[in-house]
Amino acid sequence: MKPVVLLVGRLRDVIANVVVQLEHLPVEWLGAHNREEVIHQLEMEPKIACVVMGGSMDDSTRGELIGVIAQRRPDLCIHVKDRESGPEGMAPFVRRMVEVDLLQDR
Fold this sequence. Notes:
Helix content: 40-55%
Number of strands: 4
Low-confidence stretches: none
Radius of gyration: 13 Å
Mean pLDDT: 94
Strand content: 15-25%
Strand order of the largest sheet: 2-1-3-4
Order of helices and strands: EHEHEHEH
């Protein structure tokens, strides 16, 4: 069974691009772009193994989403990407986090 990763980011194109670039990994990808979508994904998919959050959201929004995720699923590891690497840094960051967090022991 493939682990499920929730990708959270403001820019839909960036999330879609990550999925395309990393579709070869044995992972099922979900996306969310705001609070409501994050809550929906957490409620609908109990098999989420980790969350990766992009750097395009402001600190207040990121903090709120981390709180929402931690309250509903305290078992999840939340990886937060830097801002400096920009949108093009999202796929490499996600790859590193997934390989370390989920795929290393497979």
